[in-house]
Amino acid sequence: MAKRRHSLHPDAPLYHTDHSRPVTRRDFLRQGFISGSGIVTGGALLSLLGNPRLAQAALSDDLLTMASDAGCPLEGSGAGGKIPFICFDLAGGASMVGSNVLVGGRGGYMEDPLNTAGYRKMGIPGDMVPGGMDTNPPLNGPNQDTNTSNDDFTDTTLGLPFHSDSGFLRGILSKLTITNAGNVNGAVIPARSDNDTANNPHNPMYGIARIGADGDITRLIGSRSSESGGNSVSPALLINPEWRPTKVDRPSDVTGLVDTKGLLSVLSGTSGPTDVRAVMESMARISNQKIGHANPQLGAAADEDIQKLLRCGYLNSADIADTFAGRDISPNDRNEDAIIVSDNGGIFSTEEFDSSRDRREFQKTASVMKMVIDGHAGAGTIQIGGYDYHTGDRAVGEIRDLRAGICIGACLEYAARRGKPLMIYVFSDGSVASNGNLDNSENGRGKGEWTGDNSSTAASFFLVYNPGGAPEPLNPQPTLPSRRNDGVQIGSFRPDGSVETVNAPLAANDVNMLVQTVLLNYMALHGDQGNYSSLFGNNFGSDLDSLIAFQSIITT
Q1: 424 forms bridges with which residues in the sheet?
Q2: How many C-beta neighbours within 10 Å does residue 180 have?
């Protein structure tokens, strides 16, 4: 008699006989013994961070002049004029390609596909292997008017091709409307990274900040209190201690950045917020006069730098008070942002945001996406744990991929509703492989069981939303039919389902170069790739175009 399968609870910790006992916080995170930091965002963050600079008093003219003279930028404008950037750090080693994003050899997933054994390694059985493209795809899904899902397990709704039963894709499309999905495109980067280690320098946020991404409250944020804001570390050569990400995963973290409650309680008259603004502006004026007499005796250049730092600090404090003093930040007030949480057209319903199984990840995602897309932070990391999911079944991985997809889709949909561009980068430390045995349970979906870590199947990908239309490839392939021409792969896989590391882009076997490839593509979206070498060095030689996915979507 066949043994009855008992699937793990979606949030159960992952026990692996071939892993040592978890010791560090990263060990606990990737195996799901702990999740990403818990939050109860509620209305506190959402009302605090309503429409940027909504109903605030303008900073006084003399202070605006002072800020201009001192070179202090005060108002964030969509990440300091740059495209908002969010990265998802899936701790543990998630399956990115084959079962999710489609990838192929040097000719692409259509012209140079993986063989059946390669797909089997990636958990896809022979009867679910993606085939050729259909130029007239059927409809797929009750809530979609049109899409590009085909009956051969390929789906290019997002430009970047996905397996049509991808957990990531199902999650994304549960939040992203099909109309807005038409303005998305993406690229996959085949790239090995080590399994179960804290030493993968995956996180690109410091580089994004160096390019110029900034916010009107803080530069970088992350859902974890770490040097990178997430699980994987940042490349050492990019780290700037002054830009260490501010942890944002609960209301108190955010309100602490703009808290004027103390002054409001002291100035308790009917014009409390107005008085707070007046006090903070007066402090900036007085401080500006005093700073001119400072003499740190460090030399003229250092003196000038210190004076600028102090002036900008006081001016920014006054500007923040002008923006946020008196704003309603009560935990239960969501009136200012029904776009995110509402039972009447919100991205999240109140039930799934407040009491669903996945509420902690949804609240964390809402916190970061709100800060970044509204321009209050330049870039953010959302860390989600439990992606070391080679548990001898498929169900656990499918459920967790779906959860990540929902969070990614929520970010894209929020950017679309705000009319802002957005770049989302998804990475994980290492990857997994299947032995081909099938999990036919409801959540296993008849796919291959994940049975072990395997860095050779690793990859990362990014998606770009552009309000003006889907980003156009920089190097289009004219042989492909319309819309199937969109997704890009930077690098390739061997037919057996392993990353090609011979005569391949540097990212294929070097995580530092993977980050540099992401930074190059971020700059290219601004039409600024010509300045890459001046910021980061001559890492790729002169042939940058071969590593760039898309034409620019904004000019700065």
Answers
A1: 86, 463
A2: 17
Cα distances (Å, whole numbers) of residue 114 to 160, 492, 494, 495, 498: 17, 10, 7, 4, 9
d(CA 489, CA 108): 7
- Give residue-wise pLDDT tens across range 520-534: 999 999 999 999 999
* Residue range 413-442, pLDDT digits in tens: 999 999 999 999 999 999 999 999 999 999
**Average pLDDT over every residue of 360-367:** 90
* 358 vs 39: CA distance, rounded Å: 11
Q: What is the DSSP string of 442-455?
A: TTTTTEEEEEEE-G
Separation of CA 276 from chain center? 35
> Which stretch of DSSP H or E encloses residue 87?
strand 85-90
Could you write out the three-class secondary structure of 443-512?
A: CCCCEEEEEEECHHHCEEEEEEECCCCCCCECCCCCCCCCCCCCCEECCCECCCCCECCCCCCHHHHCHH
Mean pLDDT value across residues 448-461:
96
pLDDT in tens, 48-90: 333 333 334 466 777 778 777 777 766 544 456 899 999 999 9
